[in-house]
Design a protein that fits this description.
single chain, about 325 residues, about 30% helix, four-stranded mixed β-sheet, Peroxisomal Thiolase, Chain A, domain 1, alpha/beta, 2 domains, binds oxa(dethia)-CoA
Length: about 325
Amino acid sequence: MAIVSRIIGTGSHLPEKIITNDELSKKVDTSDEWITERTGIRERRVVKDGETTSILALQAAENALEAANITPADIDVIIVATTTPDNTFPSTATKVQAMLGMHHGYGFDIQAVCSGFIYALSVADGMIRSGQANRVLVIGAEVISRILDWTDRSTCVLFGDGAGAVVLAGFDDSDGDTSRVLSTHLHSDGRLREILHVDGGPGSTGTIGHLRMLGREVFRHAVNNLAAVAEEALAANNLTSSDIDWLVPHQANKRILDGTAKKLGLNDDQVVITVDRHANTSAASIPLALDEAVRDGRIEKGQIILMEAMGGGLTWGSALLRW
Ligand code: UT7
């Protein structure tokens, strides 16, 4: 007998305000044609004044709890993956804990930028399998719009705000159900921090700073690292890419998604895509895409799901699941 972890509910939430490429082209020197061709992005959601990461996270969490048919009383731990916490401290997770009316257990944030959800899922899976927790609320939530330089066309057109969440729960694997997190694999290489970073912070400049990216460099690493981490996940489980039913990737750029799918020999219709409507929502993008594909019925019980992401750090990683 061993304990395994399973996703028992998903949820997501997007701010109402939509900014189209045409609207952006009135603010910076860009065009719908350039953004669509280079990235596949058509529009993004952006928070309004007063709308924060914790507010988006709370909505996504409540939707995931409802889908799992449980209440905050059933949760042991809250993990929020975010690069845009409401405050430098305390953690956004403890804020969400209070907003949920949860007075037991504990919460903490994870910072791995766009790979944050994979990191958080990996930590939650480890906690469950080691018996440290039984039900973990794993949230990816971001208001990246607040750290963008809205005069820099090379970055401001690429990102959006949102939140996604899953409830990960522990089960005795002798119950005959093969659904579970099969493996997670995490990586980072701090030598590459300059190619995607924020030029400020509480411990350096005392300011929030703005997101800076050498897009072409990041793109090159993304295609290589994502294919490698996907192969690593498959090899660790004695599977091949033909076993994958769905790729639920971090949504940075449609060209990266196409490149990764091609390297894995997957068809376009096996890739869950939201980047056209959400842009890059950093740690929120995978749980947002997952929730969409679960709710519209594309993801079905027993299927093999590969999630992968790369982000600032650089960080990258994968999670392989049997649904
Ligand atoms: O989630 C974290 C991971 N992030 C990513 O994975 C992002 C990875 N990178 C990318 O997605 C792409 O590199 C970008 C979409 C950022 C850029 O696409 P690209 O095909 O690599 O373009 P580029 O950076 O090579 O720039 C091409 C040209 C440049 O002009 P010159 O130097 O050739 O005259 C840019 O100045 O496009 C120009 N450009 C723009 N033009 C119109 C850059 N941004 C814009 C823009 N509108 N918004």
